[in-house]
Design goal:
Radius of gyration: 18 Å
Number of helices: 9
Structural class: mainly alpha
Order of helices and strands: HHHHHHHHH
Number of strands: 0
Largest sheet: none
Strand content: under 5%
């Protein structure tokens, strides 16, 4: 197996198993998101130091607001997604989280002035219909809370992606 394929598989295993860990860790979703952010920051800092990367103060000043906004939005996304893992099935939470591109497709014509085509709209509608059918099949008492938190997660992720593209 090539090195790139191995890296892709490792990344998928790490990301795909996050729901299992979140569900069984006896911490709140916000605490898990905080510790995840701290560990990720330390990893990036150490990696940057080892690779002797530099960041200019002027770049930080110029990009402070977008960095702050996307950092807060990403943290909120994690909190909502982790809460969804605790209240609904991992499949429903993950599939719903992957709906972000579809939600962006609906608001892109308004915010990004992209052209909306009939084909894109029909495809997005079919995807949303499939999501609704899947969510209806999950018969759990707290599925409503899980669905709400994962949809909040999607909204926040949508804001991050749209704001990052400007």
């Amino acid at each position: 197996m090539r090195k790139a394929e191995t890296k892709a598989i490792v990344a998928m295993v790490i990301f795909g198993s996050i729901g299992l860990f979140v569900r069984w860790i006896p911490l709140s979703s916000s605490e898990i998101a905080f510790y995840r952010a701290v560990l990720g920051s330390l990893f990036l800092l150490i990696t940057g130091l080892l690779q002797q990367m530099t960041v200019s103060a002027s770049d930080l000043k110029r990009n402070f607001r977008p960095l702050l906004f996307t950092g807060v939005a990403l943290g909120l996304n994690w909190v909502f997604l982790f809460e969804a893992y605790k209240h609904t099935t991992m499949a429903n939470a993950t599939i719903s989280d992957y709906m972000v591109p579809v939600l962006v497709m609906f608001v892109a014509p308004i915010i990004l002035q992209e052209k909306r085509t009939v084909r894109k709209t029909v495809c997005a509608g079919v995807v949303l219909l499939g999501l609704m059918i899947m969510m209806q099949s999950a018969a759990q008492p707290s599925v409503g809370t899980g669905t709400l938190t994962v949809l909040l997660s999607c909204r926040v992720t949508k804001l991050v992606r749209m704001y990052s593209n400007q």
